[in-house]
Design goal:
single chain, alpha+beta, 4 strands, about 25% strand, globular
Length: about 110
């Protein structure tokens, strides 16, 4: 259910500027281009979404894992979402580190941060 909620919320965030509602979902970050969040899901759940919706996650985990990190990005250009690597997930770390800033710069170059 969380995935469907995030898809609905982030779809609304791509269309609604300026926002006419308050975002109270935990972990959503305001970026220079919109909003973003990373969630952890069971790998089996993400695999099921791909087979039922035709969705192709952006990056596959390097090896089978019990859990995967999945990011949602809402920008004026649209909604982007999919499985992300730990390097990308570092952009969401609370503490300012070189690793976090490197990840945010890489996402900014792709128009997502």
């Amino acid at each position: 259910m969380t995935h469907e909620l995030m898809l609905a919320l982030f779809t609304a965030l791509t269309c609604e500027q300026p926002l006419s509602f308050v975002i109270e979902a935990e972990g959503i970050v305001r970026t220079d281009r919109g909003h973003a969040v990373v969630r952890t899901y069971a790998a089996a759940s993400v695999a099921a979404w791909a087979t039922t919706s035709g969705e192709r996650p952006g990056a596959e985990p390097a090896e089978p894992a019990e859990a995967v990190e999945y990011a949602y990005f809402a920008t004026s250009a649209g909604l982007a979402h999919g499985v992300v690597s730990g390097r990308v997930a570092a952009a969401f770390e609370a503490e300012a580190t070189d690793r976090r800033e490197t990840a945010r710069r890489a996402l900014a170059r792709r128009g997502l941060w």
